[in-house]
Each structure stands twice: as structure tokens, then as C-alpha cells.
Specification:
The chain has 293 residues and is mainly alpha-helical. It is 66% helix and 3% strand. It contains 18 helices and 4 strands.
Length: 293
């Protein structure tokens, strides 16, 4: 395997090293399709060109994994399900955290190849599946084993699927279970790629409001996964939107804290319907307010 590439993927500041490798063109020797995204402009929704977007997604991953700034808030919001566990272990000798960082780098690798105009609007149909096909050739040639390659391919193939998962709302247990199976049981890394994609899309326009929404969505999906694994058929009695509507809460980490307590109570059988869940949420909120949390 290319040692300098692996070194960048395993470093906490991997985004900086990958930028240096892009500047030296070495990165494009390994992944030539990334070079096609250099200077490739995207629709106005995107703050960056395709290549800059991919590198920005890695920067977002590094930030969320750090214990600084937004990374601290992310650690707090994801602590209840153990984000470290979601990225723990190795595949073919490569840390899953490093493979997730690689997934962020290459999630849009096929955009230039799939670019087309539909009704005068630039679109990238099936760039996820096409990217997975490209990586099925590239990664083994770089020394990645079959399990590591399949992991990255799945993250690239399905990186837009979370938004499809919630249409219609709420997603069925069958839909969540099928998604989980398609990912080989590894939901959290894919959600990391999805949120980093969102951060990189907005770039400097990304706000704490966007971050709160992303974290609430991630919490909801991971809760559904946990409940499906523990008790197939179980659904959360309330979600973050219910808390904001019924308790007049503002989007933020407090919503996540209250929702986590309610879901734990539901799992323990202390609340059994929506009315009890909202009443419990009010109690938790009052306790947190009283403690100044």
C-alpha cells in the first residue's frame, strides 16, 4: 500500500497532508479521477469546486474528530451511542477511522464523469454508484484489501441515501434495516460522510443551525438503528421536532440531551406512549434548567 497515502489517512490532521499531496500532484497519481474535479464548478448550492469540496469534506471530518471547537460539541452529541465504537477496529489492517476519512475524500470522485445538464441545470446522476465502480478498480491497485475496498465503496455508493431514508417520514423499520444491511451493519461511518458532505457543501455558509439539524438527524437515525437491533419494531415515541414544537425548545444540544433521556426511559419501559414521553421530557428539561445545564 502507498505509505504516504496511508500516513495521511491515519493522521489526525489528514486533511492538511492530503492537501499537500494534491498540491504536489502525488494524490492524483494514486486517484487520477480526483484531478478531474480540479476547477470543476458546481451549482450555486456548493461553495467549492468538486476537488475543493472533497478536500473540505476531509477537513470537516478532522474537525468533528478533534476535541476543539465544533468537535467538542459533536463528541457530546454523539457520546450516548459511543461514536468511538462506530469507528473502532480495522478492515484488512487499515483503521476504520482512516477508511472513513478516505470515504470523505472520494465520495464525489465520479461527479465530473457523470455531469450532465437537465433542463439547463447541472446534475450528477448516479455519481455515487459510479464512484463505487471506479474505486472498485483503484483501491485494490493501491493495496487496499477486499473488505476495506467494499467499505469505502458502500460509503460512496450510498452517501446520499440518508436523505432518501426519511422520505416518507418516518422511515419504516424495514427501510432502516435494509439500509443497515446494505452498509454491512456500519451505519455511523456513512452518517459521518453524509454530515461532512453537508458541511463541505455550504463551506463558510455552514452555521450552528445547520450543525444542530445534522446532529439531530444523526441522533435520530442512530436511535432507530439501536432500537431496531435491541427490539425489532420499536419506534421512538417522540423526536427532536416534537420537543421543539410541544416544549417550545430551540434547536440545539439541549434538544439532544432531553431526547436522549426520553429514549433511554422508553427503552427501560418507564414511558410507553407519546403523552408519557412528552411529560417525561418536560421533567427532564426542568431539571436541566434548574441545574443550569
Amino acid at each position: 500500500m502507498q505509505r504516504s497515502l496511508l500516513a495521511a489517512l491515519t493522521a489526525p490532521n489528514g486533511s492538511e497532508l492530503l492537501r499537500e499531496q494534491a498540491a504536489s500532484r502525488q494524490l492524483f497519481d494514486w486517484l487520477p479521477e480526483l484531478a478531474e474535479g480540479e476547477g470543476f464548478e458546481q451549482p450555486a448550492l456548493h461553495a467549492y469546486t468538486v476537488l475543493e469540496h472533497c478536500l473540505a469534506a476531509v477537513e470537516a471530518f478532522d474537525e468533528l474528530m478533534s476535541l476543539e471547537d465544533r468537535g467538542i460539541a459533536f463528541a457530546e452529541r454523539t457520546a450516548w451511542f459511543g461514536r468511538e465504537g462506530g469507528l473502532a477496529g480495522e478492515l484488512d489492517g487499515v483503521p476504520i477511522e482512516a477508511l472513513t476519512r478516505l470515504s470523505c475524500l472520494v465520495h464525489d470522485i465520479a461527479k465530473p464523469a457523470t455531469a450532465t445538464f437537465v433542463a439547463d441545470r447541472l446534475r450528477f446522476p448516479r455519481h455515487g454508484p459510479r464512484g463505487a465502480e471506479i474505486l472498485g478498480d483503484r483501491l485494490p491497485s493501491l493495496g487496499f484489501g477486499p473488505a476495506a475496498t467494499a467499505f469505502v465503496q458502500a460509503n460512496v455508493r450510498y452517501h446520499l441515501r440518508p436523505r432518501e431514508l426519511v422520505k416518507p417520514w418516518p422511515p419504516s423499520d424495514k427501510a432502516v434495516g435494509r439500509f443497515l444491511r446494505d452498509l454491512g451493519g456500519r451505519m455511523f461511518p456513512l452518517l459521518m460522510v453524509n454530515i461532512c458532505d453537508g458541511i463541505a457543501t455550504q463551506g463558510p455558509r455552514y452555521t450552528d443551525i445547520h450543525f444542530d439539524r445534522h446532529c439531530n438527524f444523526l441522533t435520530y437515525v442512530m436511535t432507530r438503528v439501536a432500537m431496531l437491533e435491541e427490539e425489532p419494531g420499536a419506534l421512538p415515541l417522540i423526536d427532536g421536532n416534537d420537543l421543539m414544537t410541544e416544549l417550545n425548545m430551540e434547536s440545539g444540544r439541549l434538544v439532544g440531551a432531553v431526547l436522549t433521556s426520553v429514549l433511554a426511559a422508553q427503552g427501560a419501559g418507564r414511558v410507553t406512549d407519546r403523552h408519557e414521553a412528552l411529560a417525561y421530557a418536560r421533567t427532564v428539561l426542568q431539571t436541566l434548567d434548574a441545574s443550569g445545564s
